[in-house]
# Entry
Amino acid sequence: MATTFRACKSCSAVTEDTECNICGSPTSREWQGYIIIVDHTKSEIARRMGIETNGKFALRVR
# Structure
């Protein structure tokens, strides 16, 4: 069975759970694109997206 990834509606973190493991908000199956942040302290993209931790994040969540 294929894994269905979901994205948090609040912080955009990508997870397999129905609840975000970073902020606790609900997740959605409707999301597009993702980025992997390795060092959020040096990442311009993380700063612009408001990401304050390393990990996988969706670019757009519905």
Notes: The helical segments are 44-49. DSSP finds one helix and five strands in the chain.
